Design the sequence.
């Protein structure tokens, strides 16, 4: 009998013209076109694993090419071996002695590795007939430890410490599973807060968010201080004191500026300040946190790898760990980051929105709840009600909570018709007449 | 009269089959093919600026594509404006709101920005009839400060502090220029130390290096501890106690491992340990330095940007600042790093070797000597005698010292015949019969 192997990696450049409405506008990204380098991994038996790497428009073709470039490293590998050793797969991709020069472990080549690793996880979950969160949560603690490359992490987290964290979470898993299935996982919303929206729209969307059951809303800041003060005061007046309001500067500030700006917004009780400065500036985040406490500091959507997260935690630079499903080298590296967060007692509140990020990252938070942290306290997954219709199993948020997905897989599969019509530059949505 | 504009950016995927001889082999890069995404920036008047982004083989096409992707951001810009405001150019490339998602400020897209910025500097130096080092050294302190984007740096270095550093170096500049022209700039050699070489070759090359006048030699380590101990002992016995021997682990270790390994090599008096762990691990380098002192800690060739260097300096994690001409966003960001190093009193000893890196980075060290640090004490530029013949003005090292280049430009221009015959995959050197 012939063994099933990885036959090909197909990659599509899919872009949504979101800049036409300024959805998703923030201080650093005034006109994003939410995009996906969409991955279809095919096996020799005709099965598929899906994933995507999110980008914001220009450069999505480069991201797609970076994924294609890694194809020769995996084509021909036996599917069972790859699924049975995703750490090995990840090392093979991340550690390639020539490609790693383009990183190492950062940027397009690292996200490309993540795209392939995540497609393998999607395939693995489909085979197991499980949504990814469940597949992960059902692994034995030893198996979870076996997913992680500890090479650069041992000074902060050893294999034994990780195992102890996972074992500590074993009791109560069944009850948590019941609760997750009944009540889902907390979400927060960024829908009201984009910089491109006017005051009326901001207020209306804040009211709607509260009515829909959200208890945490995030506003973009950082373009103009007086404007931020006005918008934040308005939002606070609209939602009242009980709803948490977080702010997100998308890296616009230097360290001293961040400290001053946050100080000015302090009267309106921000729950966290997100991405106050360069995502590489660990010491800068630590300084901002010391100055801004008790306002929490959050970052991670642009943190390139687990080594950056390790240091953010070691130096007490952040209160909120914002993993992203597509920034690092896939599920395995995100499991490492979730374990690091647990070691340092910090909550994981994933970055989402974009396109497909909600669908993907909810699985990781549900795994975290069931098998690692054991709690939903202080933990929300970002949610934006946007572009979900393109996915076979759209993320569902009801009453401010993500409903646990039930289909086998990781949630990444898109409708073929969406891929076809938003394909860049030749899909029908990108034909000259369609430009807004 | 029509203004001269940037007309096009031509990019060539040029690769040298160095893996056939294992030149350049180290613990992380067993089989590199030294490569260049080679940039020719053409103006509407037919003038050219040259640059390159160095890679180690696979992925060089992606790097070339990343540079091409940025072409629309610069084509049509007036050449005078671009040369007159390279900080603005750099911000335009690095800060593009869509492309930056692939970084930000790291990986292929950041190096692509550097490729374009450096080509503009090459053009500027040709126009001025000056080698780049001289063009930079002749700028007024205010002009040098104007090259730097301080957004993320002000908590460590302000504009005023940078200006004071530059002004402090003004006296004696003329004498230093004379000395530079007469005696050049110190070099160190990595030629003897590649892991792929046997003991005889190691000893022979060490002897030759000393005979040629080098007083610092670097050996690769990290693949096998007993092997390293043997090789290092052999090298020390060969060169005697007066010659400095540095070691380079190319990121192979975690933090505790690095500390143990360096301890085992301590008896042979290593001058510095280079890249002991992940280039992103600022706190890790600081821990290694605390444990290994007085052995110096060096890193930087894979440090993605000035924010990483800022923190390495702020946290006293390194003793030696190893800038690379092609890793960051070009001359402007390297000037920032050189100023940061001066602020913290640490020597800049650039990474070179590869292909074209010696030609390029010598200019930055000569500028540093003339206009920033004012000294060559403890400062060497890496040198490997390899692939220089492909450059119009090859780097020249005589008696262990770089001879100051005299041609106008940055040193990046390659012979057209070399580009043609090493073009990948269709140059004659890559035809089937040529494979070793």
Sequence:
């Amino acid at each position: 009998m012939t063994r099933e192997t990885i036959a090909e990696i197909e990659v599509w450049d899919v872009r949504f013209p979101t800049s036409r409405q300024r959805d998703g506008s923030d201080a650093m990204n005034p006109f994003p076109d939410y995009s996906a380098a969409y991955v279809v991994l095919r096996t020799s038996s005709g099965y598929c694993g899906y994933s995507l790497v999110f980008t914001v428009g220009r450069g999505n073709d480069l991201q797609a090419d970076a994924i294609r470039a890694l194809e020769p490293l995996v084509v021909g590998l036996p599917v069972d071996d790859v699924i049975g050793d995703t750490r090995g797969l990840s090392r093979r991709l991340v550690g390639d002695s020539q490609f790693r020069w383009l990183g190492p472990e950062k940027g397009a080549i690292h996200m490309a590795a993540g795209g392939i690793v995540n497609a393998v996880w999607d395939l693995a979950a489909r085979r197991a007939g499980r949504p990814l969160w469940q597949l992960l949560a059902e692994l034995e603690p030893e198996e979870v430890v076996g997913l992680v490359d500890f090479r650069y992490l041992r000074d902060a987290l050893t294999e034994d410490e990780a195992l102890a964290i996972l074992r500590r979470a074993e009791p109560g898993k069944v009850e948590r599973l019941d609760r997750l299935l009944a009540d889902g996982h907390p979400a927060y919303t960024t829908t009201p807060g984009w910089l491109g929206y006017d005051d009326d729209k901001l207020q209306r969307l804040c009211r709607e968010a509260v009515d829909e059951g959200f208890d945490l809303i995030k506003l973009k800041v950082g373009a103009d201080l007086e404007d931020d003060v006005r918008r934040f005061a308005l939002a606070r007046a609209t939602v009242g004191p009980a709803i948490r309001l977080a702010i997100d500067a998308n890296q616009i500030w230097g360290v001293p500026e961040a400290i001053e700006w946050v100080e000015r917004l302090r009267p309106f009780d921000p729950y966290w300040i997100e991405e106050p400065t360069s995502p590489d500036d660990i010491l800068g985040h630590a300084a901002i946190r010391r100055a801004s406490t008790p306002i929490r500091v959050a970052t991670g959507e642009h943190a390139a790898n687990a080594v950056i997260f390790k240091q953010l935690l070691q130096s007490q630079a952040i209160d909120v760990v914002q993993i992203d499903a597509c920034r690092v080298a896939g599920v395995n590296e995100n499991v490492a980051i979730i374990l690091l967060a647990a070691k340092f007692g910090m909550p994981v509140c994933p970055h989402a929105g974009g396109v497909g990020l909600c669908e993907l990252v909810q699985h990781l938070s549900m795994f975290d709840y069931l098998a690692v942290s054991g709690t939903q306290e202080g933990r929300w997954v970002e949610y934006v009600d946007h572009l979900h219709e393109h996915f076979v199993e759209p993320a569902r948020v009801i009453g401010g909570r993500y409903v646990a997905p039930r289909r086998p897989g990781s949630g990444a599969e898109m409708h073929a018709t969406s891929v076809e019509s938003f394909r860049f530059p030749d899909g029908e949505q990108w034909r000259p007449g369609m430009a807004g």
